[in-house]
């Protein structure tokens, strides 16, 4: 049966990929001067997003408020 050979090959490929490309380091915190504009009205402590907030910054606002 060829199934065990496929499983072993898949595992070997996964191991080789893991060795070849190590886990990237965590992204460093964004410097203050590069904060999205909506962060100025986002309360990180209270986890509240400004409403309404500019739709083009929506992702940045949720990232700010949820992290």
UniProtKB/TrEMBL annotation:
<protein>
    <submittedName>
        <fullName>Uncharacterized protein</fullName>
    </submittedName>
</protein>
<feature type="signal peptide">
    <location>
        <begin position="1"/>
        <end position="20"/>
    </location>
</feature>
<keyword id="KW-0732">Signal</keyword>
